[in-house]
Amino acid sequence: MRTHRDDDRGQVAVEFLGMVPLILLTLALLWQVVLVGYTYTLAGNAADEAARACAVGDDGPAAAGRHVDGAWSASGGDCQRGGGMVHVEVSVEVPALVPGLGGLFPVTAEAGAVDEEVSTP
How far apart are alpha carbons 111 and 100 in whole angstroms? Predict the structure, then answer.
C-alpha cells in the first residue's frame, strides 16, 4: 500500500540542489562588497600616509605602497604643494573576488597635510 508521503521522497534534496547556486551567488556578492569596502579603507590609509611622508620631504608613492596589502597595489601618491599644504591622490584597484587577480574598477582617495618641509631661501 502506497501513501501520499512516499511520493515526496527526495524532495528536500532536489530543493537543496536548486538553492545551492543562489546561496553561492549571494555569498560571492557579499564577499565582493567586503572587498570593495576594504579597498576604500586601504586607499584612504595609503593616501594619508603618502601625504604625511610628502609633508616632511619623504617619498610619497613609496609610503603609499608600503601601506597597501600585498595583493593590492597603489598607484599615484605624487606630492602637490600649494598654500602651505601637501595634497596627494592615490588609486587602488578593487579585486574581482580574489585579491591579486585583476581589478574591477579603481578606488581613488585624496589626502592633505600641512607642509612641514623646511625651505631655505
Answer: 25
- Half-sphere CA count of 3, side-chain side, radius 13 A: 3
**What are the CA-CA distances from residue 15 to residues 6, 10, 18, 26 (Å)?**
17, 9, 5, 17
Distance between CA atoms of 82 and 75, rounded to whole angstroms? 21
Whether 65 and 73 have beta carbons less than 8 Å apart is answered as: yes
Q: pLDDT digits over 18-66, tens only?
A: 889 999 999 999 999 999 999 999 999 999 999 999 998 888 888 888 8
Distance CA 100, CA 97 (A): 9
Task: Give the per-residue SS3 of the chain.
Answer: CCCHHHHHCCHHHHHHHHHHHHHHHHHHHHHHHHHHHHHHHHHHHHHHHHHHHHHCCCCHHHHHHHCCCCCCCEEECCCEEECCEEEEEEEEEEECCCCCCCEEEEEEEEEEEECCCCCCC
- Cell numbers for 28: 560571492
